[in-house]
Amino acid sequence: MGFFEENDDPFDSIVREFFGGAPINRRTSRRRNFVEGEEDDRNIDYIEDDSYVYLVFELPGYNEKDVLVSVNGKELEIEANKRSIEEVRDYLHQKLRQGIKIKKKLPGVINPKKFTKTLRNGVLEIIFLKNGDKK
Fold first, then answer.
1. Coil, helix or strand for 10?
2. Per residue in 46-82, is it b (16+ CB within 10 Å) or e — as a string?
3. CA distances for 17 relative to 22, 24, 30, 91, angstroms
4. How far is CA 21 from CA 31, 66, 131, in A?
5. Which residues contact 103 (CB under 8 A, 6 or more apart)?
């Protein structure tokens, strides 16, 4: 669970009051809790349907051998370290050598043991099976 519960965000209530409309649904609330901040919004997508949660991460310059994805309890860990720099342009060496480490708390609605991952063209997609529609 995040800082704000489904209907506790004061800004959301002001916007609803001014523009009208229904309260924010649970899926939108879970997305907002997972994708935090401007950088996350640029590099992470959270998509949810009735059966699955799709997490999409931009990892430009990395391939499947460079990326390790693990789930420890309810925390997702992604670690990307470039193994071979030879085929990479000079200006990318430093950034790719630093690597990327991402830790995110997973929403309670997913089954952390049932996921698949694919990495193509620098886009990592992780698909989790949902347990049910819980908060």
1. helix
2. bebeeeebebebebebbbeebbebebeeeebebebeb
3. 10, 13, 22, 49
4. 19, 45, 29
5. 75, 76, 77, 78
For the chain, give the percent of residues with pLDDT over 90: 27
Listed in order, strand segments (DSSP E) in the chain are: 44-48, 52-58, 67-72, 75-80, 100-105, 110-120, 123-130
Contacts (Cβ under 8 Å, ≥6 apart) of 2: 29, 32, 33
Roughly how many angstroms between the first and final C-alpha of the chain, as a whole number? 8
For the beta sheet containing 67-72, the strands, ordered from the edge strand earlier in sequence to the opposite edge, are 67-72, 75-80, 100-105
**For residue 72, is pLDDT > 60?**
yes
**pTM for this predicted structure:** 0.68
Domains and CATH numbers, the chain: 42-130 (2.60.40.790)
Nearest-angstrom CA–CA distance, 57 and 119: 9
Provide the pLDDT confidence category of residue 133 given band limits of 50, 70 and 90: very low
For the chain, what's the residue count? 135
